[in-house]
Every structure is written in structure tokens, then in C-alpha cells.
Amino acid sequence: MSETTDITPLPKLAILGGTGKEGPGLAMRWAKAGYPVLIGSRQAEKAQATAAELNQKLGITTIDGYENAEAARKADICVLTVVYTAHQEALTGLKEALQGKILVDATARIDFRNPLPPPPPSAARLAQELLGNGVRVVAAFQNVPAHTLRKDLDQPLDLDVLVCADDLEAAEQVIRLAKNGGMRALYAGNLDNAIVVEGLTALVISINQHYKVKAASVAITGVK
């Protein structure tokens, strides 16, 4: 008998609300790492246009565009990157399509004009309560500067992603995603802890504004 090698395919990723500031950068990093990526948008045409643009930039054909719900249904792991004011509406409309999936919620409920920490519960906890036990919600990528994601795709980013989840196995999958996108990631507790991560976004925005930069980020020392 000839030997066979079991190669587990990479999960298919959907970036919901993926035509905004953060989604395209994440899409480029993961597509470059070999993941099949679906860009989701409220309008399929807009998602398809963004996918075509990113494919052209990377010289690939593995990024596709769909309406948000269709992208969610086709994916294994979904990443929500909508603006914070659209968070609840987006989740309500996607509840059925997200069942059985891991949802990575990158929402930080921060007003860029007046960056203050939001009140609890965390956006990811709200998402988990709305979506129910059929969806495993993971909070991550709230503090990653969109400006940084698109630069130097071949180089690791000098920042840490804090990952919060009630389900440790789901958190480990997202930590792997971050690593393959050139980011270090650390498990930082359950979904309730994500309120602190959202608050850190207010600090990062304030630092950016004061020092007139775009790439302030979070890093954790003392962990190898």
C-alpha cells in the first residue's frame, strides 16, 4: 500500500463588513497566507469590487465577494468588522447564517471623535447573548490599526492581539489565525474581559491623536 498524507485544508474565512477600514487588511494578510477568503458586504457588488481589487494587488484569485449572509453561510470562521454603530443590526440579520460557526467579533464601541471606554457588557458578550449557543463568539483584533495591516505584508507586525472567548478551543483557532497573519496573539480570558480590550482601543486612539500618528498598538511583555 502506498502511504498517504493527511493534509487538513485551511478553514474558509468570511470577513463580514469587509469593505471598510480593517477588513481588507485582514483579508490580504490571510489570503497571502493561503486562506480562502470571502469578503462580505450589505451589497454583493461592493464586496465583489473589493475582492477584485485585493486579488489584483496580491496577484491571486482566491478572494471572493458576497452579500454578508451568503459569505457567512459559505465560511467556517467569520470575522465581523462593521462599525460599532452597526453591530447589533448586523448580528440580528446574520443570526441564522452564523449558526454552527466561530464568529470573531472585532468591534470596539468607541467614538473616534471622543474616545472613551464603553460600559459593560462587552460587544462580544452582547453578540454571544444575541446569537445563542449555536455560535462560538471570540473577541479579537479590536486594537489592530487598520493602517498597519496593509503595510509590509511579508513582515510580522510589532503588536499583540488579545483574544477573549468562553470557548478555549475556538480561541486557539483565532490565535492561529492571528499568527498566520503575522501577529502574535494571547488568550486574555472570557468574553467579559473583552470590555477591557475595547477600552484599550480608546487609549490607543487618544495616543494616536495626541502624537499625530496612526500606528499605536498594544504589546504584552513577560510572556514568551
Short description:
The chain has helices at 23-32, 44-58, 68-74, 87-94, 123-131, 146-149, 168-180, 194-211, and strands at 13-16, 37-41, 63-67, 77-80, 102-105, 136-139, 160-165, 184-187. It is α/β, with parallel strands linked by helices and 224 residues long. An 8-stranded mixed β-sheet has the order 3-2-1-4-5-6-7-8, sandwiched between helices.
Helix and strand succession?
EHEHEHEHEHEHEHEH
Number of helices: 8
* Radius of gyration from the alpha-carbon trace, in angstroms: 17 Å
Ranges with pLDDT <50 over ≥5 residues? 1-6
Structural class: alpha/beta
Overall pLDDT confidence: 95
Shape: globular
Please, could you describe this protein's structure?
The chain is 38% helix and 16% strand. It contains eight helices and eight strands, in the order E-H-E-H-E-H-E-H-E-H-E-H-E-H-E-H. Strand 7, helix 7 and strand 8 form a beta-alpha-beta unit. Helix 1 (23-32) crosses helix 2 (44-58) and helix 4 packs parallel to helix 5. The protein is globular. The termini are far apart. Residues 1-6 have low confidence and may be disordered.
List the helices and strands and how they pair.
Elements: E1 13-16, H1 23-32, E2 37-41, H2 44-58, E3 63-67, H3 68-74, E4 77-80, H4 87-94, E5 102-105, H5 123-131, E6 136-139, H6 146-149, E7 160-165, H7 168-180, E8 184-187, H8 194-211
Helix pairs in contact: 1-2, 4-5
List keywords for this structure.
single chain, 224 residues, alpha/beta, 8 strands, 38% helix, disordered N terminus
